[in-house]
Design a protein that fits this description.
Organism: Streptomyces hyaluromycini
Shape: globular
Radius of gyration: 21 Å
Distance between the termini: 31 Å
Protein name: Nucleotidyltransferase domain-containing protein
Helix content: 55-70%
InterPro entries: RlaP (IPR018775)
Length: 244
């Protein structure tokens, strides 16, 4: 089975991410699409395994196989967790609905290290831009402020909200370069301090609910295997056996 076929025929969840999901889209914004596909279980039984992710087939489209997606979500990968909380859902089946119902199981204090680690990496890139060009890439600076805000609020409330809401104008002013780099640095430092304080009183558990996610993945793989077996029997003209 071709990778594009897995995305086309076996996607369980697909959404729009990026500026459009964050409430920061402008006329020139791309439409970033992300998704999760469930590779049929028999594909894992041979030597050649299905891909863990697929780029395309559309422009700005990227999808993960369910197991890989869950692994990254359990590690509190910021991009994956935000994908689970997109307000712009384009495709969803029953398995996808169960995945979304598990959103809380993936959230833990691990988010502090993963979000701040990602933020530090992005900050180093901005600092390099300032040294090389005298100014950062303002769009990237805006998104870093948004990420830091999201991390702080997640630790404070135990819930992940990716939309900027009524702060849209404030963030877009940064994107347009209307806020000085010194002021942006000050905001970043303040958000980092607030995030550290939020960690000490966060309602998030120390670890994600691995058992709940593992049970979901096991049941989903088992259902896929049984469905494939039943479809094969139908094709062979054999009546499927009753499940007890």
């Amino acid at each position: 089975m071709e990778p594009e076929d897995l995305v086309r025929d076996h996607t369980i969840y697909a959404c729009v991410m990026g500026s459009r999901a964050f409430g920061l889209a402008t006329e020139d914004s791309d439409t970033d699409r992300r998704g999760v596909f469930l590779a049929p279980t028999p594909l894992f039984w041979g030597f050649a395994k299905p891909p863990t992710h697929v780029e395309g087939p559309g422009e700005e489209q990227f999808s993960w196989e369910l197991e890989r997606f869950c692994e990254l979500a359990l590690r509190a990968n910021p991009n994956i967790l935000e994908c689970l909380h997109s307000p712009l859902v384009e495709r969803l089946d029953d398995t996808g609905r169960e995945l979304l119902a598990l959103r809380g199981a993936f959230l833990s204090r691990r988010a502090h290290d993963s979000f701040t680690g990602y933020a530090l990496a992005q900050r180093r890139k901005l600092d390099a831009d300032v040294r090389a060009h005298g100014a950062p890439r303002w769009k990237h600076a805006m998104h870093l402020l948004r990420l830091l805000t999201s991390a702080r609020d997640l630790l404070r409330t135990g819930e992940l909200t990716i939309g900027v809401g009524d702060r849209r104008a404030e963030f877009l002013a940064v994107k347009r370069g209307e806020v000085s780099w010194a002021e942006v640095e000050s905001r970043m430092a303040r958000l980092a301090e607030e995030t550290e304080r939020a960690l000490h009183g966060t309602p998030l558990p120390a670890e994600p609910d691995h058992a709940r996610v593992a049970d979901f993945l096991f049941r989903t793989r088992r259902t896929s295997a049984l469905r494939t077996h039943a479809d094969h029997q139908v094709m062979q003209g054999v009546a499927p056996a009753r499940q007890r």
